Amino acid sequence: MTTTSNTTILIIEDDQFVRHSLAVYLGSKGYTILQAENGRVGLEIFFQKNPDLVLLDLRMPELDGLEVLAALAQQIGEVPVIIISGVGSREDAIESLRLGAWDFLVKPIRDMTLLEHSVNKALERAVMIRERHRYQQELEKTVADRTAELRHRETKLKKALVGIVDVVAAIVEKRDPYTAGHEQRVASLARAIAREMGLTSRKIEGLHLAAIIHDLGKVAIPSELLSKPGRLTDLEFQFIQTHVQVGYDILRRMEFPWPLAQIVHQHHERLDGSGYPQGLKDGEIMIEARILGVADVVEAMSSHRPYRPALGIDTALEEINRHRGTLYDADVVEACHNLFGEGRFIF
Question: 4-aspartylphosphate (modified residue): where (predicted)?
Answer without folding.
Answer: 57
